[in-house]
Amino acid sequence: MYVQKGAGVSASQIYHHFGDKKGLVRAVIAHQIETSLEHQRPVLDHLDSIEALEAWRDGAAASLTRRNCRGGCEVGSLASELVETAPEFQGDLAAAFPRGRSRSGTACTR
Hints:
Elements: H1 2-7, H2 11-18, H3 21-44, H4 50-66, H5 74-82, H6 90-94, H7 96-99
Helix pairs in contact: 2-3
Protein backbone atom coordinates (compact mmCIF):
# COMPACT_ATOMS: atom_id res chain seq x y z
CA MET A 1 0.00 0.00 0.00
CA TYR A 2 2.82 2.45 0.88
CA VAL A 3 4.65 1.72 -2.36
CA GLN A 4 1.47 2.08 -4.36
CA LYS A 5 0.62 5.41 -2.75
CA GLY A 6 4.19 6.72 -2.92
CA ALA A 7 4.46 5.83 -6.60
CA GLY A 8 1.00 7.19 -7.36
CA VAL A 9 -0.04 4.03 -9.19
CA SER A 10 -2.89 1.57 -8.92
CA ALA A 11 -2.60 -1.88 -7.39
CA SER A 12 -3.25 -3.39 -10.81
CA GLN A 13 -0.16 -1.62 -12.20
CA ILE A 14 2.02 -3.04 -9.43
CA TYR A 15 0.66 -6.55 -9.97
CA HIS A 16 1.02 -6.18 -13.74
CA HIS A 17 4.72 -5.31 -13.47
CA PHE A 18 5.76 -7.42 -10.48
CA GLY A 19 3.20 -10.22 -10.26
CA ASP A 20 2.80 -10.00 -6.50
CA LYS A 21 4.40 -8.50 -3.39
CA LYS A 22 7.25 -11.02 -3.50
CA GLY A 23 7.99 -9.97 -7.07
CA LEU A 24 8.16 -6.35 -5.94
CA VAL A 25 10.55 -7.20 -3.10
CA ARG A 26 12.73 -9.20 -5.49
CA ALA A 27 12.82 -6.20 -7.84
CA VAL A 28 13.95 -3.98 -4.95
CA ILE A 29 16.67 -6.48 -4.02
CA ALA A 30 17.88 -6.68 -7.63
CA HIS A 31 17.90 -2.88 -7.91
CA GLN A 32 19.92 -2.46 -4.70
CA ILE A 33 22.43 -5.08 -5.81
CA GLU A 34 22.86 -3.55 -9.27
CA THR A 35 23.13 -0.01 -7.91
CA SER A 36 25.72 -1.00 -5.32
CA LEU A 37 27.82 -2.96 -7.81
CA GLU A 38 27.53 -0.24 -10.45
CA HIS A 39 29.05 2.31 -8.07
CA GLN A 40 31.81 -0.01 -6.93
CA ARG A 41 32.59 -1.82 -10.19
CA PRO A 42 35.32 0.58 -11.44
CA VAL A 43 37.28 -0.01 -8.25
CA LEU A 44 36.39 -3.69 -7.77
CA ASP A 45 37.61 -4.52 -11.27
CA HIS A 46 41.08 -3.21 -10.42
CA LEU A 47 41.77 -4.62 -6.95
CA ASP A 48 45.11 -6.04 -7.96
CA SER A 49 47.37 -4.70 -5.23
CA ILE A 50 47.44 -3.74 -1.57
CA GLU A 51 47.40 -0.09 -2.62
CA ALA A 52 44.24 -0.63 -4.69
CA LEU A 53 42.58 -2.44 -1.78
CA GLU A 54 43.54 0.42 0.55
CA ALA A 55 42.12 2.96 -1.92
CA TRP A 56 38.83 0.99 -2.04
CA ARG A 57 38.77 0.88 1.77
CA ASP A 58 39.43 4.60 2.01
CA GLY A 59 36.66 5.34 -0.49
CA ALA A 60 34.20 3.16 1.41
CA ALA A 61 35.15 4.88 4.68
CA ALA A 62 34.77 8.33 3.09
CA SER A 63 31.34 7.37 1.79
CA LEU A 64 30.23 6.29 5.25
CA THR A 65 31.67 9.46 6.77
CA ARG A 66 29.73 11.64 4.30
CA ARG A 67 26.54 9.85 5.39
CA ASN A 68 27.40 10.01 9.10
CA CYS A 69 27.61 6.20 9.01
CA ARG A 70 23.91 5.96 8.20
CA GLY A 71 22.75 3.15 5.98
CA GLY A 72 25.88 1.01 5.96
CA CYS A 73 26.27 -1.38 3.05
CA GLU A 74 23.23 -1.13 0.77
CA VAL A 75 23.01 -4.88 0.22
CA GLY A 76 24.07 -5.84 3.75
CA SER A 77 21.49 -3.53 5.29
CA LEU A 78 18.75 -4.92 3.10
CA ALA A 79 19.85 -8.46 3.97
CA SER A 80 19.78 -7.75 7.69
CA GLU A 81 16.26 -6.31 7.37
CA LEU A 82 14.88 -9.31 5.50
CA VAL A 83 16.88 -12.32 6.69
CA GLU A 84 14.72 -13.13 9.70
CA THR A 85 11.38 -11.64 8.67
CA ALA A 86 11.34 -12.88 5.07
CA PRO A 87 13.48 -16.03 4.74
CA GLU A 88 12.13 -16.68 1.23
CA PHE A 89 14.43 -13.90 -0.01
CA GLN A 90 17.66 -15.27 1.50
CA GLY A 91 18.71 -16.83 -1.81
CA ASP A 92 18.19 -13.54 -3.68
CA LEU A 93 20.30 -11.70 -1.13
CA ALA A 94 23.02 -14.34 -0.84
CA ALA A 95 23.48 -14.29 -4.61
CA ALA A 96 24.64 -10.67 -4.40
CA PHE A 97 27.79 -11.32 -2.44
CA PRO A 98 29.69 -13.49 -4.95
CA ARG A 99 28.79 -10.92 -7.62
CA GLY A 100 30.70 -8.32 -5.61
CA ARG A 101 33.96 -10.09 -6.27
CA SER A 102 36.43 -8.33 -8.47
CA ARG A 103 38.13 -9.96 -11.40
CA SER A 104 41.11 -10.43 -9.09
CA GLY A 105 38.91 -12.56 -6.79
CA THR A 106 38.74 -10.07 -3.92
CA ALA A 107 35.41 -9.97 -2.11
CA CYS A 108 33.29 -6.87 -1.80
CA THR A 109 32.65 -6.63 1.94
CA ARG A 110 31.81 -2.98 2.37
